Every structure is written in structure tokens, then in C-alpha cells.
Amino acid sequence: MNCCVLSHAGGLYLQIVCNINYNMDMHQDVVDKQVDSDPCQSLLEILVCPRCKSDLLYNVTPPRYLCLNSQCGAIYNFIDEFPSFVFTNSIEIQKDTQNHYQETPFLWGQSGIKEKYLMHSGAGRFLKEYHDEIVVSKTSLDCGCGAGIISRYLHEQGLKVFSVDLSLTSLRLTISTGINTIHASNLSLPFRDGMFDIVISSGVVHHTPDAQKSVSELIRVLKSGGLLYLLIYRKESFQYIEYSTIGKILRTISKNNLGNNVIDKVIVPLFVPFIYAGKMIKFRTFKSSTLGEYRNYFYDRYITPQATFHSKNEVLQWFEQYGVKPVKYFIGNLGYHHNFIVRKL
Ligand SMILES: C[S@@+](CC[C@H](N)C(=O)[O-])C[C@H]1O[C@@H](n2cnc3c(N)ncnc32)[C@H](O)[C@@H]1O
Ligand SMILES: [Zn+2]
């Protein structure tokens, strides 16, 4: 079954929706069974229960992870080939965002001008400038991996890569040999503290209901001495005005079928030439991206249900609070983004 049970935790009944099933007897039953050696088993050195941060146990048949804390007792099934650690209670509810990126995953750079896209992006600048340190690093996390461009690059550089996304479509675009694709939320990551040498979060935390909590999770899983690259929407930007004015109208229109068709068939095609011209100048190439890339870029910019915008000082205060030191800062394309590179002390 793929839905909804109740568990008792700390006197409160929490409803755990989605792919977590719970039944105390069944839980004990499976915990008692023999566990095989399997690639998923070896992930236990890295994985923890995202809800209570306790150890997990891997069960082979059916394949799933079980929380060893009996007070929590969460069970995490697989969805297709992806271990799924997304649960929805309280703040974890991000259904609209999940649906949005399942239907219109962020594809930008997937085809055509892929390498140029990567190298002209803020993440690309980080990968280039810190190349020597990155190639001798061992483990990396691409949190909110989208179509997996950054994950693939890290894998090509010889790092062990973990790619996380809330959208299964994104994970399907990212999955390939050597990349561990995990369905989870940035708000509650299923990793032990200090697991990764390199953590990348490019354009993700501002799409969650709590960007600060997302940043704290990224820092939690970063090793001491490790590097975090963070791209986050900038409050003092034209995009903030765009998203809260034109975007607000478009999001309202998109709520019904007719409106959505107008956006898809009329507004997006009108928007494409402007973006094409901008990219042509920037990447110095006539090569175009696919219509899908333009379309989904438009959806990411205006229609995405959740986007928050932050001042530089606000983010710097989070860093101070969580014990990381900014080592580089630059403003991204058209002044839309902050790019922070920080080192964990
Ligand atoms: C704008 S895309 C960026 C993709 C990729 N990082 C890149 O630079 O190409 C934002 C991504 O964040 C994912 N996302 C949104 N909320 C998330 C969350 N709470 N946890 C993990 N991923 C999330 C979306 O599904 C989407 O793939
Ligand atoms: Zn647990």
C-alpha cells in the first residue's frame, strides 16, 4: 500500500503520508529478518532516518529502509529504483512544488549548449575556481539536482556523487551508473552529519517553505573543512519584482486549463526569442536549446509555486549561526542570484 498510517511519537499522533507505511508488528518482523549484502545495504554508512536521524536497516524483500528507533518506526519504500525518504507532515508539505517540477523539470543546459551552460553558471564558476580541491575530494552531494548536469560533471571528476531531488522526473533525468539518486527533501535530509566534502545547492533552497532550514541541513551534512556552493534568489533584484507581479498574474491564469494553454501555446513562444537572444550573446553561440528547455525555464522563473528572495545580510547571518565561513561571494546573471561559497569550520 502506498498511503497513510498513524504512528505515535512523543505523545503526538503524527500523520505520515505517502510512501511510509507503519505497523509496529510488521516493523519488528522485518527488522528481525536476515539482511543481505547489497549496494543499498552499504548506503547505511551514509543514510539515517530523515525524521529522527536514527540508524536505518535495509530490508531486501521487499526493498525498503526501516528506522531502528521504535518510537519513530518509519519505513521508507522505493519508488521505481529510488529509495524515497520524502514524508509529509507539518512543514514538509511541498506537494505543489513537487508536482510542478515533476511536470516541468528544470532542463536548462540539458542539451545543445550543455557545457557552455555549466561553465557560465554560478555553479560552473565554483567548479572551475575550486577545481583542484574538488578533484581530490571524495564525496559530494548535489541537493536539488534537476536534470543532473552538475551531478554528471562531479561524477566525471571522479567523486562519489549523491543526487537528491523532490521531483522523481528530475531523478529519472539524473540517474546513471555511479550516481546515487535519492528521493528526499532538502528540509530533512536522510544523511548522517558531516558526510560530504562538497555540497552543491544551485537554485533550490528558495523553492522550499523554509530556506534557512534547508541551508542548515546542507551545512549539517557537510564535513568540517568541506565546501558548500549555494545559489539563492536575491531580494534586491528585478526578478523579485517580476515574480511577484507578472509571475503572480501568470500563476493565477495557469490554475485553469484554458489559462495554462494560453501560457503554453502563446506566452512561452513569445518569450523564447528573448531568451535565445540573451543566451546567444552570453554563450557566443547560435546553437539553440530545445523548446522544452525554454518552456521549463519559463515555468521555473514565473510559474513555480514557491519562491522566496533573500538579502545578502540575511544569508550571512545564517552562516554565522551555523558555523561556516564565507570564502567567496558573487552576484549572478542580471543580478538575480547570490552565489556563496562557504567553508565549514
Ligand atoms: C531550479 S531547479 C535547479 C536544478 C539544478 N540544481 C540546476 O541548477 O540545474 C530546482 C530543483 O529543486 C528541486 N527541489 C525543490 N524543492 C526541493 C526540496 N525541498 N528538496 C529537494 N529538491 C527540491 C526541484 O524539484 C528542482 O529540481
Ligand atoms: Zn526515524
From TrEMBL:
**Which is an annotated Pfam family here?**
Methyltransf_11
Q: Does the keyword Transferase apply?
A: yes
Cite the GO molecular-function annotations of the record: methyltransferase activity
Q: Which UniProt keywords apply?
A: Methyltransferase, Transferase
Which InterPro entries does its entry note? Methyltransf_11, SAM-dependent_MTases_sf
Superkingdom per UniProt = Bacteria
Which GO biological process annotations does it have?
methylation
The UniProt record lists the EC number as: 2.1.1.157
Annotated Methyltransferase type domain residues: 141-230
Extract the PANTHER family matched here.
Answer: METHYLTRANSFERASE, RHODANESE DOMAIN-CONTAINING PROTEIN
Q: List the protein's name.
A: Bifunctional 3-demethylubiquinone 3-O-methyltransferase/2-octaprenyl-6-hydroxy phenol methylase
Species annotation: Candidatus Magnetominusculus xianensis
